[in-house]
Structure formats: structure tokens, C-alpha cells
Design brief:
Helix content: 55-70%
Number of strands: 4
Number of domains: 1
Shape: elongated
Distance between the termini: 54 Å
Order of helices and strands: HHHEEHHHHHEEHHH
Strand content: 5-15%
Number of helices: 11
Strand order of the largest sheet: 1-2-3-4
Radius of gyration: 37 Å
CATH topology: Outer membrane efflux proteins (OEP)
CATH superfamily: Outer membrane efflux proteins (OEP)
Structural class: alpha+beta
Largest sheet: 4 strands, antiparallel
CATH class: Mainly Alpha
């Protein structure tokens, strides 16, 4: 008898999990440089962000918790063994008494299917939340890459304007020294030069800020070099198709699917709370022997009496939580439609303004060229020359700023609708529409 018992004990120990220490990292895991592929296109930046973003790595690890909870939901509760040995101390008995019983809680079996469904919904919600976070990271990567490309395009124009005006300030300073001009004539040129320098410094600051933000998003060190293409290339964009697809957005956007799966899980929580109002029921089998060697074998039951607590508190809480989730889903749905509609309207306005600015730009360039030619033969005064040059560079930057703003809105809309982003086919969508 001792040998089988020892073998059973060893087997049970072999099936147990063992503890292993997991140390925290000692330093930040930031790459010193981007991959050797250069220059990086927008799609390359998105791919690197999805692969290397530190927050996404942490989110993927958190998803493992939902998978573990799904595993736990399929494990039935262990039966309970109860035993007693009562040595004979005094009296007419001849042997020690003993008892042994095996019982199982049946209430956990009643809610088993509902708990499994809720765990599957929760796992699906975790997957949808992770996919939505990937959409956000991909959209942010697009946005930063587009802004960085646009800012770098503005730098040469701003630098050229500053260089021209700095040369004019140097010329007017020489004229002031020789008495060939007055301070009233020279002052506007210096003011325009200082404004151009401030504009160039602002663009440089913006470029460095965007560079640091993109490095952080890609899991790179702040000083890591990033070489991007000169022109931003975005997925095809059709405003009419976007408006037509708004009705199917709840089936395609991960955050909306996550809310639906969370609502389905809460439905199961309400069902479980209602089932839990029934009495606790534990059934088992026991065997006893008294001190006179009389052996009894038979079933036993333990039933809870729902005199005071019929789980009405938990039922009320789960129903209120379900109502809250329903309202949150309706609010998110309305917000989504409003955001897409507002962005499309802004794009229409920006498109009209950009078209007007592009029509005005050739005239500003021609006027600046004529001013350059007139200055070479002293046929234009300093103030008029500076005004025409400044107008040309202002119009150049206006066009680039409107182009960048239009691209920003396009990226925002494409992030909202998931254009060119990971699809949702792998999610358990059927769980959300039961």
C-alpha cells in the first residue's frame, strides 16, 4: 500500500508548475539606428512601428492574460475530500472510528458554459483592443512620417528666404556706413530678415521634435538617424467610398468590435449572476465506521438556504454595468461617424484653399523674379523689393503648409476607417453578434 501511495504522490508533484525567477531589464532596449533600408517610405515606417514599438510589445504581453483567463475558464473545480480518524480513548468501543467523504460543488457546473462564453468574448475583446492599438500606432507613425517629410521640405525654402534677406541686410549695412541710404529704408529689410530667421528656427525646432517622436515610436534612441523619402506616398483616398463605408464601420473597426465583445461578455456576467441566485449545492459520497466496526456508506448533500442573500446585489451591479457598456458603445459609434464626417468636411475646405494658393503662387514667383531683375539695374526701391521677395516665400510656405494639413487629415481619416491597416478577419466577430 505504501509503494502505490508514494508513486501517486511523486506523479502529482511532477505535474505541478515550478517557480522560475524573471528579472526586470537593467537598461532601456532602444536600437541605436533604424534598419539599413533607406530611404524609408511611409509603409516602411508603419511596418517598423508595428514591429518595434515598445507599447505594442507590452500590449501583446497583456493579451496573454486574456488567453490565460480563457484557459482557466475551462478548468472545472476540484472535488473535495474530507476525512477523519478518531482514536478510541474510552468507552465500550473496540476500534478507532474513522470517516471519509468525496464531494463536488455543482453550482460551478451550472455556470460553466456561461463562464466559457464570457472568457471567449473577453479573449476576443483583448485581441480587438490590441488590433485597435496597432491601428493607432500605425496611424501615428504615418502622421509623424508625413509631418517630418513635410517639415524637411519646408526647410530649404525657409533657408533660402533667410539667406537672401541676410545678404540684403549686409548690403544695406554697407550703404548705411557710406551714407548711401537711410535707416528708414534699411529697417524693413532687417525686420524681414529677423522674421525669416525666426521662421527657419521654428521649422528646425519642429523637425527635431518630430524626429524624436518618431524615434520613440519606432523604439530607437533619440539621436538615431532616420532617412525618409522626399515625397509622402499615402494609400489611395476616395471620399465618396469613405462616406459609403460608414454604415459598415462597426463591423470593421477594432475598437467598436472590442466594445461589442465586451458587451457580450457582460451579458454572460448578467446570466451568471442570475444563475448564482439559486442555492449552493454540494453532492458527495461518504463512508464512516464507528468504534464498534459498524460501517455506513451513502450520499450526502449540502444546500445553501437563500433566506437573505439571493445574489440580488450582484444582479443589479451586472445589469447596471451592461447598461453602461451599451451607452458607451452608442457614444463611440456616434463619435466615430462625427469624426469621419468632420475630417472629410475639413479636407474639402483645405482642398479649396490649396487650389487657390497654388493659383496665386506663379504670380508671386514671377513678381519676385521681376524684382530681382529690377534690383540689378536699381529700378526698384528696397522696401518694394523686400515685400515682393517675402510675399513669394510666404506663398511657397503657405502651399506646403496646406498640402501638409491636407495629408494630415487624410491620414486621420484612413486611421479611423483602417485603410491600409491590419484587417479584423482573425477576430472572433461571431462572438460579438450573438
Amino acid at each position: 500500500m505504501r509503494r502505490p501511495a508514494a508513486i501517486a504522490a511523486l506523479l502529482s508533484l511532477a505535474a505541478c508548475q515550478h517557480y522560475e525567477a524573471a528579472r526586470l531589464p537593467e537598461s532601456a532596449a532602444l536600437a541605436p539606428a533604424a534598419p539599413a533600408v533607406a530611404p524609408l517610405a511611409i509603409d516602411d515606417v508603419v511596418r517598423l512601428a508595428l514591429e518595434n514599438n515598445p507599447d505594442l510589445r507590452a500590449a501583446r504581453a497583456r493579451r496573454g492574460i486574456a488567453d490565460a483567463q480563457l484557459l482557466a475558464s475551462g478548468i472545472l473545480p476540484n472535488p473535495t475530500f474530507a476525512g477523519a480518524f478518531l482514536p478510541l480513548v474510552s468507552g465500550a468501543g473496540a476500534v478507532p472510528a474513522w470517516s471519509a467523504g468525496l464531494s463536488q460543488d455543482l453550482k460551478a457546473l451550472i455556470t460553466y458554459r456561461s463562464r466559457r462564453r464570457a472568457a471567449r468574448d473577453a479573449a476576443g475583446q483583448a485581441a480587438a483592443d490590441l488590433l485597435w492599438q496597432e491601428w493607432q500606432v500605425a496611424g501615428q507613425a504615418r502622421q509623424l512620417a508625413v509631418d517630418l517629410i513635410g517639415t524637411r521640405r519646408q526647410q530649404p525654402v525657409a533657408a533660402e528666404a533667410y539667406a537672401i534677406l541676410r545678404q540684403r541686410v549686409a548690403a544695406t549695412d554697407r550703404a548705411l556706413a557710406t551714407g548711401d541710404t537711410t535707416l528708414i529704408v534699411a529697417a524693413p529689410t532687417r525686420a524681414a530678415m529677423q522674421s525669416a530667421r525666426t521662421n527657419l528656427q521654428t521649422i528646425d525646432q519642429r523637425e527635431l521634435q518630430l524626429h524624436h517622436q518618431l524615434c520613440a515610436l519606432l523604439g530607437l534612441a533619440p539621436d538615431a538617424p532616420i532617412t525618409l523619402v522626399r515625397e509622402a506616398s499615402l494609400p489611395p483616398f476616395d471620399p465618396a467610398a469613405v462616406r459609403a463605408g460608414l454604415s459598415t464601420l462597426p463591423q470593421r473597426r477594432p475598437d467598436l468590435l472590442a466594445l461589442r465583445l465586451g458587451y457580450a461578455a457582460q451579458e454572460e456576467a448578467v446570466r451568471q449572476a442570475i444563475l448564482a441566485q439559486f442555492p449552493d449545492l454540494v453532492l458527495g459520497l461518504s463512508r464512516t465506521s464507528d468504534s464498534s466496526k459498524v460501517v455506513n456508506v451513502g450520499p450526502e448533500a449540502t444546500i445553501g438556504l437563500p433566506l437573505f442573500d439571493r445574489n440580488q446585489g450582484n444582479i443589479a451591479i451586472t445589469r447596471a454595468t451592461r447598461a453602461q457598456l451599451r451607452s458607451e458603445y452608442a457614444a463611440r459609434l456616434a463619435t466615430t461617424a462625427g469624426e469621419v464626417g468632420a475630417a472629410l468636411a475639413e479636407m474639402t475646405q483645405l482642398g479649396e484653399q490649396l487650389a487657390q494658393a497654388r493659383r496665386d503662387l506663379p504670380e508671386a514667383r514671377i513678381a519676385a523674379q521681376r524684382a530681382e531683375a529690377a534690383r540689378s539695374v536699381s529700378a526698384i526701391d528696397e522696401v518694394a523689393f523686400v515685400d515682393l521677395i517675402a510675399t513669394r516665400f510666404t506663398k511657397e510656405q503657405e502651399v506646403m503648409a496646406l498640402e501638409l494639413a491636407l495629408q494630415d487629415r487624410q491620414v486621420a481619416v484612413q486611421t479611423l476607417i483602417g485603410a491600409g491597416l491590419p484587417a479584423v478577419e482573425t477576430l472572433p466577430i461571431e462572438q460579438a453578434v450573438r
